[in-house]
Specification:
The structure is a single chain. By secondary structure, this protein is mainly α. It has a domain of 39 residues. The chain is 36% helix and 0% strand. It has four helices and no strands. The protein is extended. The protein starts with 13 loop residues before the first helix and ends in an 8-residue tail after the last helix. 1% of the residues are buried.
Length: 86
Amino acid sequence: NRMGKGARVYLGSAELAAVCALVAKIPTVEEYMEIVTQKIDPFADELYRYLNSAQMTGFEEEGRVIPLEEMPKSEDILGIPAEALS
C-alpha cells in the first residue's frame, strides 16, 4: 500500500471531482449516478475520445520552451496584488 497503512484517503476521478463541486460534498452513490447521467454522460463522445496527437492539426511535435524571464508569475495569472504578497 503506497499510501501507508491506515491512510484515510479517497481515490477519485475528474468526474467525481466535478460532482463533488456541484453538490459541495462527497456525494452518495445515488447523487453521483444521477448527476453523471444528466450532466456528463450526454458529452461522453467528446469527453472520452482518444487524443491522437499525430492527427491533431496544430499539434506541435516539440513543446515550446519559455525562457525563465518570460515565464508568467502565478500571482499575475491569478490577479493577486503585489502588496498582498509582502
